[in-house]
Write a structure and sequence with these properties.
seven-stranded parallel β-sheet; alpha/beta; single chain; binds NADP nicotinamide-adenine-dinucleotide phosphate; 7 strands
Length: 245
């Protein structure tokens, strides 16, 4: 898909991978809509760039998400690409006091339920276009989990499997279903975590080339190695990731 003039909605476009993707899309002259919670960051981004729309919504709140979805259907009947990028990662021991039922539910809703509900709400619009795409941002941790973010790994593993099944369901339609699996990336999400982090521009470039090209499952940088290691020796891969903490 040539991105010039194409209308793209990205969640979590105010920071990290999402922000790098917004800027890369604008360089390609796409028309970009951004959804995130923080109104000030959205307004600052809109002042800097000429966006097609900004919407403040806590996507972990299903009611607010459905209302937003209905508004988007009205405002943007020409939407062609949906990028489900927004996400959070809590680094906590599952059985500690810090891991409250509220935190577990919030992370599940933001990372897993929100992309599903947004897809369900916007799919009728996407199906009306000649060409359309849905891109879900998962992670290498959807292949092999690390120890400290059990809920995060579970939500992303679930999103990965859902994405594969949805691709089967829509195989004969005009809507391509893409999954991007980044390794650890230098963003606010990973402050104090990991090393040798990838620059978000590299993930943005992988996102754009997958939409423009044909790849539907994109293992970015070190995630390629993890994918092959997990196939050749699942036990070694699991052990290695477990020791990462
Ligand atoms: N960083 C990594 O190493 C890495 C690796 C693999 C995959 N990923 C995935 O890549 C995606 C982006 O991560 P990132 O590292 O770029 O994160 P980030 O810098 O923390 O940015 C997260 C974005 O999502 C938005 N967001 C978070 N919770 C939201 C909610 N409940 N409702 C609406 N918007 C929400 C944030 O804006 P507001 O706070 O204003 O809402 C922000 O724009 C995530 O799905 C993450 O799981 C990241």
């Amino acid at each position: 898909m040539d991105l010039r003039g194409v209308k793209v909605l990205i969640t979590g476009g105010t920071s990290g991978i999402g922000l790098a993707t917004v800027e890369a899309l604008l360089r390609e002259e796409a028309s970009v809509i951004v959804v995130a919670r923080d109104k000030n960051k959205l307004a600052a981004l809109n002042n800097k760039h000429d966006l097609a729309g900004i919407y403040s919504c806590d996507l972990a709140n299903s009611k607010a998400l459905i209302t937003l979805g209905e508004q988007l259907v009205n405002d943007h009947p020409d939407l062609q690409v949906l990028i489900n990028n927004a996400g959070i990662q809590n680094n906590i021991q599952f059985d500690s006091d810090e891991s409250t039922t509220h935190k577990i539910e919030y992370e599940m809703q933001a990372n897993f339920l929100a992309p599903l509900l947004l897809i369900r709400t916007l799919l009728p619009v996407l199906k009306k276009q000649q060409e359309a795409a849905i891109l879900n941002v998962t992670t290498g941790l959807a292949l092999v989990p690390k120890t400290n973010s059990a809920v995060y790994c579970g939500t992303k593993g679930g999103l990965r499997i859902f994405t594969q099944a949805l691709r089967n369901q829509l195989a004969e339609s005009n809507v391509r279903i893409i999954e991007i699996l980044p390794p650890v990336v230098e963003t606010p999400m990973t402050v104090g975590r990991g090393s040798n982090k990838l620059h978000p521009d590299k993930v943005a470039a992988a996102i754009l080339s997958s939409i423009k090209g044909r790849a539907n499952e994109v293992y970015v940088s070190k995630t390629k190695l993890l994918y092959w290691l997990a196939r050749v020796s699942p036990a070694i891969a699991r052990n290695m990731m477990r020791r990462l903490g």
